[in-house]
Amino acid sequence: MSNALDLLAGLRRARVIDLSQVLEEHMPNYPTHSKFFHSLWGSYWHGGRSLSYQLVMHEHNGTHVDAPAHFISDAQPEAHVTIERVPVARLLGRGVRLNCQGMKAGEYVPKSRLIDWEGQHGALEAGDIVLFDFAWSAKWGLRPNDQHYVEDWPGVSMDAAKYLISKQVAAIGVDTLSPDPPEALRTRPIHPVVLEKQVLIIENLCNLDQLPDFFLFLALPLKIREGSGSPIRAVALVEQLAVLSFVSVL
């Protein structure tokens, strides 16, 4: 019981930053993905006892995580991991924010930038969840004001992706539609490369500018059978004492 109370006390000292976009109709989404719909199902306004809505959505709407099966076919059964088989702890760990603000649409973060960052802040470690802050979430808007967000965006280069794989990170995240800009998706995307190695991909994050270099990251996907991904509620706990007491209990 004392360990649980110590953990709770540490969590309550933390400042929680919400890293998830609001799920709502007309929000940006990848062009080939279906839209998000939130439809009234029953209400006290219409004589019912309670209020409820029906959700119709794509697995990759809003802030979400890609499971390896999103790009890895069942021809590779060991790597073809659907979302309900991803260990829950995979999205719970030390978060790392890389400031990539100022990059233009279509530009790529090179491996050298990661190495330079490590020289200034410390080494990336196995199990880290690395978030790229492009400040792109500022372009998020409801249709028809979503075009600046979805037309093009910066991303992560292949050499940077392979370097992160070598560091055995648990996941990479971006505040864009994808770590692959449109040109990379047409030619040589990092998606299949990192997902084959069970490095998860988190997309459409926000509020990354509020994060320090290191923090506690937590997100839970829905347990969708045979799911290629899932919406998540991603949060960061940023007070050092809370993070340390949480991690020490794990």
Short structural description:
The protein is of the alpha/beta class and 250 residues long. It is built from seven helices and 13 strands.
Please describe what this structure looks like.
The chain is α/β, with parallel strands linked by helices. The protein has one domain: Glucose Oxidase, domain 1 (3-Layer(bba) Sandwich), CATH 3.50.30. 23% of the residues lie in helices and 21% in strands. It has seven helices and 13 strands. The strands form three sheets. Strands 1-13-11-5-7-9-10-4-12 form a nine-stranded mixed beta sheet. Strands 2-3 form a two-stranded antiparallel ribbon. It has a two-stranded parallel sheet with strand order 6-8. Helix 1 (2-13) runs antiparallel to helix 7 and helix 2 packs across helix 4 (158-166). The model has no long low-confidence stretch (mean pLDDT 94).
> Cα-atom Rg, whole angstroms?
19 Å
User: What's the N-to-C terminus distance?
Assistant: 15 Å
Unreliable stretches: none
CATH fold-level name: Glucose Oxidase, domain 1
CATH architecture annotation: 3-Layer(bba) Sandwich
Structural class: alpha/beta
**What is the total domain count?**
1
Query: What share of the residues lie within helices?
Result: 10-25%
Number of strand segments? 13
The quaternary state of the protein chains shown equals single chain
Number of helices: 7
Strand content: 15-25%
Sum up the overall morphology in one term.
globular
Average of pLDDT: 94
Reported for the largest beta sheet, the result is: 9 strands, mixed
CATH C-level class: Alpha Beta
The CATH homology group name: Putative cyclase
